[in-house]
């Protein structure tokens, strides 16, 4: 039988296929998976091998090419149908993916590309060593720069990090940081809202988000390779919590804590997941 997590992602793939002509909301997909938007984007990239926005874009361009070739629809109609604001933007995306302009599709001189839909199968997982520590922390604020990462971003919150370093307040925030930068990931209306800044006891002159006191599980990570981080989030969310007495506190956002100096290839940083203790013995007794 397909396990629960796999079944959720099967439903998500079906949903995407049925709504390729509509605006697909990342927050809605994340809710289907019972994950935050940030977690969902990480896990989806691990499972699919491509970010969620790229997956949707390539599936749309695959279908658009079939329609242009087989049904003879116009480029303008295809552009509007698949969510592009103009024929020129559609043409650029089409050429980048297929390697030639859509007006040349009838010449049969070029091979089209088909980016196939994801198919999930049952497989054995687990048996992973995950090192962690439990930390009780007081209430605090993260003060700095805030921005939203939408579905089209290839790397979640990358432009927010760029916004932080380009900010006129970056030097001041870094001086207050105590050699540690905090990133807070909250669900937005359509995607994920990211706060990057210094830890403070109270909100300051910059944008800030308040983090309540509570219990956190802390996982050390080394380096910034995106595929490695995506796999690590998958192992935490879909393996660790299946085997642990801890339960994620979904009312509190996840944290990532970075050193100010991230120039070394294998620098050490930290993922913090807010949790509560649950009595799994009672769960088994009620089964």
TrEMBL record:
Residues annotated as transmembrane: none
HTH araC/xylS-type domain location: 10-108
Gene3D superfamilies to which the protein is assigned, alphabetical: Homeodomain-like, Regulatory factor, effector binding domain
Domain of life of the source: Bacteria
GO MF terms, alphabetically ordered: DNA-binding transcription factor activity; sequence-specific DNA binding
Keyword Protein biosynthesis: no
Record carries keyword Cell membrane: no
Keywords noted in UniProt: DNA-binding, Transcription, Transcription regulation
PANTHER family (alphabetical): RIGHT ORIGIN-BINDING PROTEIN
Name of the protein this chain belongs to: AraC family transcriptional regulator
